[in-house]
Structure formats: structure tokens, C-alpha cells
Write a structure and sequence with these properties.
By secondary structure, this protein is an alpha/beta fold. Helix content is about 30%, strand content about 20%. It contains seven helices and nine strands; from the N terminus they run βαβββαβαβαβααββα. Bound molecules: adenine (ADE). It is an enzyme of class 2 (transferase).
């Protein structure tokens, strides 16, 4: 699966994909993440990518031409399933959106800045607008990294234990049960006996009950 991320701050996206699972997925050839500097597509020698808003008001608006040039170049090279714009007024990202997007082949992600992007980019090129939550960040780069992480870990073969993505919180309707590792006792605090009993059936039952209780307490809305 290929992601093309268009941004004015490519440096912000150098590190998130260079570690752990996301790095491994790229090394295994299961995902490819290409970051494009929007300024390379600027029409003027100052490499501007924004301009004053028509009608006045504070803040700059990202111009249509650099985005159009970059998107059209990419579309000339391959077909894209989605052009996603990261924005706080998009639909809120959840597991079901991530699951759906993990079945796609090529995705372009646009990162906004300043006051926003020219509405015509959204009208003409964007197929989907996604928010990562009801708060405003300085730009779309961190949201883009969150989206790519949520998708890539679902691609078959990316996680070494394939079932582990399936048992994640939110993948079913329940949150995860608590987990423990050695030592079995630390400062007098013991791991629940059942987990060291070796009784697989009882352990599964305990985990299910814990999941249910945690969901009831923290996210009762998931049980409806
Ligand atoms: N850009 C700024 N804030 C954002 C958010 N919460 N989600 C997606 N993109 C954003």
C-alpha cells in the first residue's frame, strides 16, 4: 500500500515512519510512504504556497496551484483510491474507517496549515476529510502520521502476530483487558492468581470479564 503525503513541513514526517512497526512494514515492502514538499510545486521563485484570504480576515490561505500541480503529477503516475484532507472539521477517525482504508492500494494525504486551504482544493480533489479528534493542532502532519499508523498496522503481514491487531481495543466492541509481566510480585503487589494458573479456558474467561467491566466503566457507549 502506498501513501503520498503532501506537506509544507516534510521534516515533521521524517521520524514517525522510521521506527518500529511502520519502519518494518516499509522494509518488508508492505507499505511505501512518500513525503512531498509542497514548496517544490510553488509557482513563484519565493516558493510561496499561501496568500491573503479573499474578503479579508486574519491568517493566510494555502493556494490551489501547488496542491493541484503535485496531485496531478501523482495521478499521472498511478491511480489513487482516495485523496484525504486532514482537518478538524472532517469525520472523526475511528477503527472502522482505518479498517476500510487498509484495504486500499494508493492514498494521497494533504496536510493543511495556517487558516486553511482554498476551498476549491477540497471541492475538486479531496474525496474524504478526516479529523483525529475535537481539538485543533498546528497542522495536518501529526494527524497524517496518526492516520497512516492506524492503517499500516492493519495490513496483513505487518504485525508479526497477525491476531494481535484483531484483539485490539476497538477492534471488537470491547476495550482490552489489563496485562501483566514478570515479576509476579512487585512491592507486595501481586499479579492476579488466575494468570499464573496455567488454565487457558479460565484465563480467557477472566480476560473477557475484565474487558467487559473496563468497557462498562470507561466506554459504556461501546456496549450499546
Ligand atoms: N489539523 C489540525 N487539527 C486537526 C485535527 N484535529 N485532525 C485532523 N487534522 C487537523
Amino acid at each position: 500500500m502506498r501513501f503520498d503525503i503532501i506537506t509544507v513541513l516534510p521534516g515533521l514526517l521524517e521520524s514517525p515512519f522510521a521506527h518500529s512497526i511502520l519502519q518494518r512494514a516499509q522494509k518488508k515492502g508492505l507499505s511505501e510512504i512518500v513525503v512531498h514538499n509542497l514548496r517544490d510545486y510553488s509557482l513563484n521563485k519565493h516558493k510561496n504556497v499561501d496568500d491573503y484570504p479573499f474578503g479579508g480576515g486574519s491568517g493566510m490561505v494555502m493556494s490551489i496551484e501547488p496542491f493541484a500541480a503535485c496531485i496531478e503529477k501523482l495521478k499521472g503516475e498511478r491511480e489513487y483510491d482516495e485523496v484525504i484532507f486532514m482537518t478538524p472539521d472532517g469525520e472523526t477517525l475511528n477503527q472502522s474507517i482505518a479498517n476500510h482504508l487498509s484495504t486500499k492500494k494508493n492514498i494521497i494525504i494533504l496536510c493543511g496549515h495556517y487558516k486553511g486551504i482554498d476551498q476549491r482544493i477540497r471541492d475538486i480533489f479531496v474525496t474524504r476529510e478526516i479529523s483525529i479528534g475535537d481539538y485543533v493542532l498546528s497542522g495536518g502532519e501529526l494527524p497524517a502520521a496518526v492516520l497512516v499508523d492506524a492503517i499500516v498496522r492493519l495490513i496483513p503481514g505487518v504485525l508479526s502476530d497477525e491476531t494481535s491487531a484483531l484483539s485490539d481495543s476497538f477492534q471488537g466492541d470491547l476495550l482490552d483487558a489489563p496485562v501483566y509481566t514478570r515479576p509476579a510480585e512487585w512491592r507486595g503487589i501481586k499479579v492476579p492468581d488466575i494468570l499464573i494458573s496455567g488454565n487457558k479456558a479460565k484465563i480467557e474467561e477472566w480476560r473477557y470479564e475484565q474487558s467487559l467491566e473496563r468497557t462498562r466503566q470507561r466506554r459504556p457507549d461501546l456496549l450499546k
